[in-house]
């Protein structure tokens, strides 16, 4: 692994982060997240083997959430800490926002719920502090001042170390950063956002905020639920045994952002990206998945990419993207071009009228860096 600073904080993390949504299994779906019922979900023993191997490979950054299998993922990690004593070797991230009970106050980002959610996560994780505590989504029902003050209080009392946010749009991200500054609170250091060759929308606004404000981007679903792994073939509908995409291809009602519907991507735009990944992979002796991950790792706003896995082999293959090789500028440009879509208004206009207004003394994001 290589190690990067986590946003503008002094904390360093491995450039591959182990996502643990695959840890634990449920018999029925929770909050619409039927992916947790997938046959590829892992029980405790296999999850612990993956954690062991990840640490052996040099990883130090683990990401989870309280809602992953309704707390099972956090419990599995907590038992691994208890068994191995490796808590201090790990930068631990978790999240809160989703309802974890049937009560009217069992969800959201209110002071009451965040305080309880943090305490519950600490118990499941068998630790007395969380390194990176992230809001899992926006909460339109809670004043932002209440949420941010609560997170700062959790830092002040030592229960969390840093604050991150996830799954927000551009105006929300800027408001979060600005209000944190105005209130004199601990800064937001990361944005965890879906980001891949098949999901680049956040480059328009959210990531511009991150570049200007020193916030690190942690991409989730970097292989778009398996669509960028190379295992799916033209004119062959994925089968239920072929991961999450196979499950949603058989029943599109189960589709989520983490397990997208096959029919929405089975087009020439997708296959052209796949062809580009395959060609560049052959040039490096790498898999399509490794090239797709490497493309993200070479983005200047990305300190670490979150990968999920269901086997040791999958973990090792994905971690091969971490170090020892790189894509050339030409290869990065080719993938950028293949995965770019026509800019809509007002982005196309804004870029065009500012091409000759690049001021090297003004720390704004260069237009050349836009999507």
CATH architecture: Alpha-Beta Barrel
CATH topology term:
TIM Barrel
Instruction: Give the tally of structural domains.
Output: 1
Mean pLDDT: 93
Helix content: 25-40%
Question: Going across the major beta sheet, what is the strand order?
Answer: 9-8-7-6-5-4-3-10
Give the topology string: H per helix, E per strand: EEEHEHEHEHEHEHEHHHEHHH
Q: How many H/I helices?
A: 12
> Which word captures the global form?
globular
CATH homologous superfamily grouping: NADP-dependent oxidoreductase domain
CATH class: Alpha Beta
Strand element count: 10
Radius of gyration using CA atoms only: 20 Å
Question: Which key terms come to mind for this protein?
Answer:
371 residues; alpha/beta; TIM Barrel; eight-stranded parallel beta sheet; two-stranded antiparallel ribbon; 12 helices; 37% helix; globular; NADP_OxRdtase_dom; NADP-dependent oxidoreductase domain-containing protein; oxidoreductase; NAD(P)_OxRdtase_dom_sf
């Amino acid at each position: 692994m290589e190690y990067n600073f986590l946003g503008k904080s002094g904390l360093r993390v491995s450039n591959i982060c182990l996502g643990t949504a695959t840890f634990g299994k449920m018999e029925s779906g929770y909050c619409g997240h039927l992916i947790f019922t997938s046959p590829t979900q892992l029980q405790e023993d296999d999850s612990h083997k993956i954690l062991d191997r990840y640490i052996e490979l040099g990883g130090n950054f683990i990401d989870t959430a309280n809602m992953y299998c309704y707390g099972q993922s956090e419990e599995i990690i907590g038992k691994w800490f208890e068994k191995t004593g490796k808590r201090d070797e790990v930068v631990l991230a978790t999240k809160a926002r989703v309802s974890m009970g049937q009560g009217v106050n069992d969800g959201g980002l209110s002071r009451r719920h965040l305080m309880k959610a943090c305490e519950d996560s600490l118990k499941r994780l068998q630790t007395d502090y969380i390194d990176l505590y992230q809001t899992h989504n926006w909460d339109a029902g809670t004043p932002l001042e209440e949420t941010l003050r609560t997170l700062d209080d959790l830092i002040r009392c030592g229960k969390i170390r840093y604050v991150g946010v996830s799954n927000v749009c551009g105006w929300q991200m800027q408001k979060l950063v600005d209000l944190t500054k105005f209130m004199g609170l601990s800064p937001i250091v990361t944005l965890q956002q879906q980001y891949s060759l098949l999901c680049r929308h956040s480059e328009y606004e959210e990531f511009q905020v991150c570049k200007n404000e020193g916030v690190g981007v942690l991409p989730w679903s970097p292989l778009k639920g398996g669509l960028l792994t190379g295992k799916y073939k033209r004119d062959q509908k994925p089968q239920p045994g072929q991961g999450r995409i196979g499950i949603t291809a058989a029943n599109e009602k189960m589709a989520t952002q983490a397990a997208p519907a096959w029919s929405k991507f089975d087009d020439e735009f997708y296959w052209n990206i796949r062809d580009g990944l395959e060609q560049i992979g052959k040039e490096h002796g790498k898999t399509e998945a490794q090239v797709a991950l490497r493309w993200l790792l070479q983005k200047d706003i990305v300190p670490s990419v979150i990968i999920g896995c269901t086997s040791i082999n999958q973990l090792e293959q994905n971690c091969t993207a971490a170090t020892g090789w790189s894509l050339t500028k030409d290869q990065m440009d080719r993938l950028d071009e293949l995965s770019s879509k026509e800019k809509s208004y007002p982005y196309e206009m804004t870029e065009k009228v500012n091409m000759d207004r690049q001021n090297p003394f003004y720390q704004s994001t260069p237009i050349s860096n836009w999507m």
